Amino acid sequence: MLTRLRRICGNGGETALRRRVLAGAAVACLAVAAARGAEAQPVAGDGAHHGYLAARMTDGGELVVLDELNAGRFFVPASVLKTVTAAAALEHLGSGYRWRTRLTSAAEVAGETLDGDLVIEPGADPTWGRDRFPGGAAEPLAALAEQVRARGIARVTGDLVVDASRFPGRPHPLDRGFGDLPYRHGTPPAALAVDEATITVRVAPGASIGAPARVEAPDGLTVLNLTTTVGRDRHGAGTLDFLPVWGTDTLLLRGEYPLSEPAFTVPVSDPAPSLRAARRLRAALGEAGVAVDGEVRVERARPAPAGPDPVLAELPSPPLDYLLAPLLTNSHNWYADTLALTLGREVAGTGRFDDGVEVIADFALGLRDAPAAGPDDLAIRDGSGLSAANLVTPAAVVRVLAHAARQPWGDRLIEALARPGRGTLRAWPRLPAVAAKTGTLRHTVALAGFLDPGSENPVVFCYFVNHHQGRAAARRAIAAALRSWRADERAGGR
Questions:
Q1: Which domain holds residue 262?
Q2: Residue 253 domain flag
Q3: Consecutive 10-residue runs of the chain (494 residues): their mean pLDDT?
C-alpha cells in the first residue's frame, strides 16, 4: 500500500533539503523507511529484486514520499544511469557547451608552405556523422580543411599528427567485454572520430563449404578472416565474432557462416578511430588544395605550439543540448560515454575516461544532505549504464532528478526524456503521462523520471527490477506502479 504523504525531513526548519531540493536526502532522512524497505519482500512473488521510490515535489521545495521499497539498496541501473550523466554534464558544462576541434602548428608559414607538422587537437566532438551533417563526416572535415587553405597554406612539409595526449588512458571500463566492445552499442568513445567511431562491414557466405566468408570492409582496414562457410544443416546456428585489434587498424573475424544464410551489413567498432579520421582529414585537405608531404600518425605527447596564434583552423560542435534527445529519448550509449570522456577533460583536467566517470559520481554524491549523508549510494563504471557493474540506489536517482528539476537547465533535460510511445518507451505497455528514461540489460528493467511532468507538483520516481527473466512482465509491474501512484495522488485530493 502507498505510504500516505509522509513528509521528508519535516523538522520545520530551513534544512539543506529545503534549500537545495535534493531528493537523494531520502536516504538520510528516511532512515526508518529505508530500514524497513531493506527487509521488504520482492513484489508479486516473481523472485526478482524490486526497488523503487516515488515522491511528490511540493511548492515549498520539499519531497513527499508516496511509496518506496528498498529505496536505499543497490541495483544495476542500466541506461537509467544516463539521466545522472546528462545532469552532471549540464551542471558542470552548461547546456551551451561546445566541443572544439583545432588544427595548430608550431611551424612557420613561408609563402604558401607550412614548414613542419600540422597538429590535430581533438576535442572529443561526437557529432561528426550523418545525424548532424546531411553529407556525413565529409562536411566537418571539409570545413576544417577549407579554413587551412583560407590561411594561405597550400603545402605542409611535415606530418599530420593527432595529439593523443589530450585524452590519454583507456576509453572504456575494464569490464566491458567482447560481447559489447566490437559493436555500435558498445563502441568506446574517442578523442577524434567520425561516424560514431564505427565502420561498416558487409559479410556473406563463401562460394562453397569450407571457404572463408566473403568480407567487404573500408579501405585501409586489414581484415584477418578466420571464418568458415558451413552447410545448410547449420542454418540459424552459425555465429560470427568481430574482434577489433585496438590501435592496429586490424579487424579479426572468426566463426562459421551457413551457406544458406543471406549476406548482412553490420556497424562495428573502429579499431583505430583517431587514425582513420585523420586520414580522411588529409584527403579533405588535398581536395581543398592543401598537400601534406608527410604521413598521418597519432602521437602520445606533443609540445605546446609556439607563437602568438598557433590555431590555423577551429570547428565548434553544436551545443550540448543537441545530444540530449538522442541520449535520453533513444538511449545513445556512445554519446553518454563521450560525455564521461569530456568531463574527464573539462572538469578533472586529465582527459581520462575513468576520471570523467568519477566526476559524474561525485556530482550525484555531492547532492546528499551533508550532515547526514551516510554511505555512498552510487558506484559507477561508465556514463552509459552499459556495464553490469554499475550500482545505484533508487533514492540516488530521485535525488538527481529532483535537483535537475529546480535548475535553469532542468527543463531541457526533462524535455529530452522519452514519452509514452516515443523512443525507448515504444515497446512499453500503456503508461500514464510520464517523461522518463528506460533501462534495459539482460536481467535489468528500469524506469525513472517524472509522472505528470507538466503539472506544478510532479511525482519524481525511480523503479529498478533486477534478476528478472521476463522484460514484458517487469515493464507491466512498473507501469502498474505508475498508475497506482497517480490514482493515489488524485484520490488524495491534489
A1: 195-269
A2: yes
A3: 29 31 38 39 70 92 91 97 98 98 93 95 94 89 97 96 92 83 93 95 96 94 95 90 91 95 94 95 98 94 61 96 95 97 97 97 90 82 96 97 95 97 95 97 96 93 92 94 85 55
- Are 285 and 417 in a shared domain? no
Length of the chain: 494
Q: Decide if 269 contacts 182 (C-beta within 8 A).
A: yes
Contacts of 190 (CB under 8 A, 6+ apart): 124, 167, 171, 197, 270, 273, 274
User: What is the spatial distance between Cα 217 and Cα 202, in angstroms, rounded to a whole number?
Assistant: 7
CATH number of the structural domain spanning residue 462: 3.40.710.10
With respect to residue 182, please indicate whether it lies within any of the assigned structural domains. Answer: no
Q: β-strand 250-258 against 222-230: which pairing, if any?
A: parallel
Counting Cα atoms < 13 Å in the Cβ hemisphere of 139 gives: 13
Same domain, 280 and 257: no
Q: Which of 316, 349, 373 is the C-terminal boundary of a domain?
A: 316
Give the number of other CB atoms < 10 A from CB of residue 35: 10
Tell me how many domains the chain contains: 3
Q: Tell me whether residue 222 is in a domain.
A: yes
Distance CA 273, CA 216 (A): 18
User: Can you name the residues that pair with 227 across neighbouring β-strands?
Assistant: 255
Residue-level pLDDT at 302: 61
- The SS3 assignment for 364 reads helix
DSSP letters, 242-303, are EEEETTTTEEEEEEEEETTSPPEEEEEE-SSHHHHHHHHHHHHHHHTT-EE-S-EEEES--P
Euclidean distance between CA atoms 251 and 226, whole angstroms: 11
485 in the same domain as 385: yes
Helices 321-328 and 81-93, axial angle in degrees (round to 10): 170
Give residues with Cβ within 8 angstroms of 162, minimum separation 6: 119, 120, 122, 191, 192, 274, 275, 277, 278, 296, 297, 298, 299
At residue 469, the pLDDT reads 76
Residues 479 and 373 in one domain: yes
Model pLDDT, residue 213? 96
